[in-house]
Amino acid sequence: MERGNETLVREFTFLGFSSLAGLQRLLFIAFLPLYLFTLGTNAIIISTIVLDRALHTPMYFFLAVLSCSETCYTFVIVPKMLVDLLAQKKTISFLGCAIQMFTFLFLGCSHSFLLAAMGYDRYVAICNPLRYTELMGHRVCVGLVAVACACGFTIAQIITSLVFHLPFRSSNQLHHYFCDISPVLKVASRHSRLSQLVIFTIGVFVLVIPLLLILVSYVRIISAILKIPSSTSRYKAFSTCASHLIVVTVHYGCASFIYLRPKSSYSSSQDTLISVSYTILTPLFNPMIYSLKNKDFKSALRRVMGQASYPFN
């Protein structure tokens, strides 16, 4: 379809790894086992939490949801990226790009709010241990996850609609390996300052508000931990929060660098590198940080494996 001398864009071409043309097969060999390992560890975490009753607590409920979210999150981006590393034509349809952006934003935004819910869970567990079961009942946990998903869905719908209602008539070359906001906006024929401002404001809402809630929770948590007389008890209390703090730092650090920068400092090569870290490396390390170093989880995993080995005992 044409308008004047310009042709409307029907598909986009990914150029994310074009500068590494000679290394793309090596990248495929490196990324594939990492992706399969991530899928495997998340599957182990989810199945262990579901099968072992000792892990039917709010903390592990949130962890199972987080693992499921990360599995879906990587599934939206990584398989297509792996196929493109071996393909000559690295394209995605206009509709496919919109669907990928919506799904990626939905899961990513939900992830941010879910981390805030997990921070609140740690706050209640340490600052109100006697009321923990009452304050973090199953309905409350499910409600927090539902709110996180509803916020993620609404934000993804708004941003995707704003981006893909723009005219795309010039270039269709995305300097990225998936349909992220900045690379797609860059190839739009024109976009208003209002749409940029709305997207930036939503980004602040998604990243800054949950982070502030987490910081407030941890100020109170640290204050409560310092009042514990026993050094052993202090260490145990802090160790239950350390993994969450590490994941929060990595998630919000990478996301803030990409989505809260001024447009003038946009760099496609930097964004590609940072995006690899949070689409491949962060989901790889998160299961190990949260669960595979956790004594309670490892004990539960042994019990589940024992039951699987001796089903009739």
TrEMBL record:
Q: Which GO terms describe its molecular function?
A: G protein-coupled receptor activity; olfactory receptor activity
Q: Which Pfam families match?
A: 7tm_4
Q: Provide this UniProt record's keywords sorted from A to Z.
A: Cell membrane, G-protein coupled receptor, Glycoprotein, Membrane, Olfaction, Receptor, Sensory transduction, Transducer, Transmembrane, Transmembrane helix
Is the keyword Glycoprotein in the record?
yes
The annotated topology with respect to the bilayer is: Multi-pass membrane protein
Q: Which domain of life is it from?
A: Eukaryota
The G-protein coupled receptors family 1 profile domain, residue ranges = 41-290
Residue ranges of the TM segments: 26-51, 58-78, 98-120, 140-164, 194-216, 237-260, 272-292
The record's subcellular locations are: Cell membrane
Give a GO cellular-component term.
Answer: plasma membrane
Main function: Putative odorant or sperm cell receptor. Odorant receptor.
Q: Which family does it belong to?
A: Belongs to the G-protein coupled receptor 1 family.
Q: What is this protein called?
A: Olfactory receptor 10K1-like
Identify the species of origin.
Ailuropoda melanoleuca (Giant panda)
At the highest ranks, the source species' classification is: Eukaryota, Metazoa, Chordata, Craniata, Vertebrata
